[in-house]
Every structure is written in structure tokens, then in C-alpha cells.
Amino acid sequence: MKQFQYVRPAEARSVINALVKDPGAKLVAGGTNLLDLMKRGVEGPERLVDINRLPLKDITKNNQGFNIGALALNSTLAEHKEIRKGLPLLSQALLAGASAQLRNMATVGGNLLQRTRCPYFYDTSMPCNKRIPGSGCGALKGFNRMHAIFGASEHCIAVNPSDMNVALTALDATIHLSGPKGQRNIPVQEFHRLPGNQPEQDTVIARNELITGISIPASPLKHVHYLKIRDRSSYAFALVSVAAALDLQGTTIRKASLAMGGVAHKPWRLTEVENFLIGKQISASVFQEAGTLAMRGARAYEHNEFKLKLAPLSIGHALSIASGLIKA
Amino acid sequence: MAKERISKASRRNFLKQSTLITVAAMAPPVALRAAEEQWDERLASAIENIPFSIEVNGSLHQAKVDPRVTLLDFLREHLQLTGTKKGCDYGQCGACTVHVDGQRINSCLTLAVMNDGRKVTTIEGLADGAELHPMQTAFIKHDGLQCGYCTPGQIMSAVACIKEGHADSDEEIREFMSGNICRCGAYPNIVAAIKEVNGGSKV
Description:
- The complex is a heterodimer.
- By secondary structure, chain A is of the alpha+beta class.
- Among the domains of chain A are: 5-53, Uridine Diphospho-n-acetylenolpyruvylglucosamine Reductase, domain 2 (2-Layer Sandwich); 223-322, CO dehydrogenase flavoprotein, C-terminal domain (Enolase-like, domain 1).
- Chain A has helices at residues 12-21, 34-39, 74-79, 81-86, 88-96, 100-103, 108-113, 119-122, 164-170, 188-191, 271-277, 284-294, 306-322; strands at 5-7, 25-28, 47-50, 59-61, 65-69, 174-179, 182-187, 210-217, 223-229, 240-249, 252-261, 268-269.
- The model of chain A has no long low-confidence stretch (mean pLDDT 98).
- In chain B, helix 4 packs across helix 7 (187-199) and helix 5 (151-163) packs parallel to helix 7.
């Protein structure tokens, strides 16, 4: 690991000052992704700013919904009584991610910012436009089984690895940022980026901004399911995942919210499919049609063609479980 | 128990000494360079080391370490608590699982200095004197290990798994123990050990 200076400010203002003063500074909270990357030589900050002393751990509920501090642990959030009751989709997604040990370390802010698990990004002997802009994409013609089928570019076909982000997208969360010019709020759908010709930018956060928390509106969509398909039954990144949320009146769909993980550089919201579902009766054939509709514009690479079949089936299955048509 | 600790310590000392002998036997330019690097290390450590305090298995330690030292390396290399194992060092295997402020974590993915003021329990701190923790007894009874390398991490994780209330069925145990990999494949016996301790029956 490259040498670095270690600092531990107690106030958000000092954290932002550290970022403004030192372009080589990086923030650390749980450390589960950053330390991994530092050990491998992918990241080499000159200054590590430990933000664990900031008072950003609270999870609170009000009439509008939930406010969650950026330093709330993934395990705390997943097990939180009110979250399990009010936002079970978020709880399910968090518990589908990582392991019990990692969830006890990883924070909400860190999860939002976690880097892709593309093996070419991690292997410093390989080309990767995300790691070294202009070096090329090793995955494009390499081993691309885990990679994107939506929104990729010739510069990068990596996917966002988070489960939490997929649920937050289906739940219309807002990200709160604090920087030298003050605070700003960004809808989660606009927070993560598509790779385009700047795959080194995962999100729209500025280099000197800090995530202070997120807010999630109370959801009227009570019928939910987070489905995660992976190579082993636990502790693996998603090949495909689906966050499905429905508002039902009897067997009629009043409103739907759908997002996919493991298929794009950002959580993939399925607005067109949501509109298709409004007013429909719940049935296996409607849900399968929804899955097929979601595949418009999908494009596979040499090793991930299976996702073109797996993704629509997963959407159908997640909707069937969410609506109560079949048991999980 | 005490005897075993001494023999373990002397094996480590022997390994350290034999490494020194190897360095001494190297060609002079190589040995010189090694010495030079060590000098660099010492100079750097005088400037860069960060003071912190940490309670490990009930003992308070005031230490000064390079901020790059992980909690895992601090426990093993600075406190000689080698019961906590280094498997992958990337948070993928769970062999390094310890409890920090009562929560199980991967000690390879946190820096020692980030744990300033916290309380750590390692596998060495689980037994009550010569009396094994019920989970340790259950692992022996159910043969929850073969090579034993993952076992300290498995046991620390298993104790937390029950405390968190996630050990009510085989399925739940498997899900909430998935962060601990056993390459010998002792999983059915590990699940049996956890079930028994969770059930409160005498092990």
C-alpha cells in the first residue's frame, strides 16, 4: 500500500476543507471497498480523511418519509424496525448484499460510491479506461460475463455492483451533498452516470463534496420484492437483480416501480415498463410481457448473452413474487 | 494452556530468526539495500506513526503504528495474537473475523488507527480462562473443522450470528454465515454446532 497521511476531522467543514486543499485526499468511512483498492494499487491517496467521527449516523422517520445519515451502517439500516416495516424493499436489497461482517462496516455513503467489480478495473496489469483513462477497455473483448447489457459505451462496459442503489432507485431516493459552495440535493437516478467517454466518473459528485445523507419518500407501493440472481446463493455480486414495487387494488396494478441491477453502469430504472403495467391485472403473462418490454435496446457481449434471457425472466419472477402471484 | 502459548511463541521467534539469518546470508549489496530500507522504515516510522489506543480482549493498548497497518496485522504482528487468521486479505473469506464493539467485522479491511478507542474481541478472548466458550466446545463436538484455518473466523462469526438473532433455521444460519468460507467443506457440521448452541442445549 502506498504511504499516506491519516487525518480524522470531527466536523463536516474540516472534511470539505481537507478535500479542497488537497487534490490527493480521499475519504474513508467503512473502508471495505477503498482499502481493498488501496492494497491492490488501484487507489493511492496521499491523504486519507477518516470521516467516522462525523455525526451522520442517524436514521429518522417523519411524515414525508425517512432521512438516513451517510454513515449509517448497512446492517443497522437493514435491521432498523421502521425501515423493515416502511421500506422492506430497501431492507431486502441490503441483506442481499455482501456478508454480515461487511454490512457491519459498510456505510450508506460508501455503498452509493462503491466502485465496479469489473476484474479489469482491479487488475493493474490490464487496460481499463475507468482506472487509467485512455488505456482501453479490457472487458470489451475479454471475459465479460458479469458486464452491462444496457447503456454501455465502447470505453466501458462495467456495471454498478450495489444492491442498495437498485432499491434506492426504485424508491426515488434523494442524495444530499455538502461542498465548499453549500448543499445540494440530487435524485438518485441522476447521481450515478452512464460511462460515455468518461468512465472514470461513476457519479456526478464533485471531488470536494461529501455525501451527508439520503432521504426516501414514504412509499405507497406496498407489494415489493428484491430478487437477486447470482453464481452462488449468498455473498456474490448480482448477475441480474430486480427491485419491484407495486401498488395494487385487488388484482389491478395502480402504480409500479422497477429497477434492475447488474445490467448497467448505473441502477437501471424501467420507466416504460412501469407505465405499461399501470391498469393491468396481475398475471404471469402480463409480467412476462413486462420482462420482454424491458429488453428493448439491450445489447450483449461475447460472454454475457445469457443475461438477455435471464433479465426478462427475473423481471417476471420478481413481479410475480411482489404481487403475491407466487411465493418467494 | 500456558505451555502451548510458549511453544507457539517460540515457533514464531524461530521463524523470525531464520528470516534474519537468510538476510545475513545474502550477497552484500542485497543485504546493504535491505538494511538501508529498514533504516528508511525507521525514519519514516518516527515521523509518520499515529498514536491510538485500543482495548483487546480486556487489555488496553497504547500504540503508535504506520496508518497503513490493518487491524488484522496489528493484532497478529504487534500484539502476537495470531489466532485471527489472514486468509485472502481482501474481505472475501472471513478468516480474519473479530468483534469490534460487539459487532463482527473483517479485520483485514479496517485500519488499526480507525479503531481508536474501540473494544476488540479475538478468538483468544472468547474462552473464560481454561473454560472453552460453548461455541468452541460445539465445534469440537460436531467436528466443525478439518484443516482449522478458517475456524477462528467461523467461531467469531457464529457467536455473533446467534447474538444478532439470525440462527433460527439451517437456511438462515447458512445465509448469515456466508461471509466465512471453509475450503475443506465442513459446512454441515458448522451449521450443526451453531444450531446446538442457539438451541441452548448443553454441548
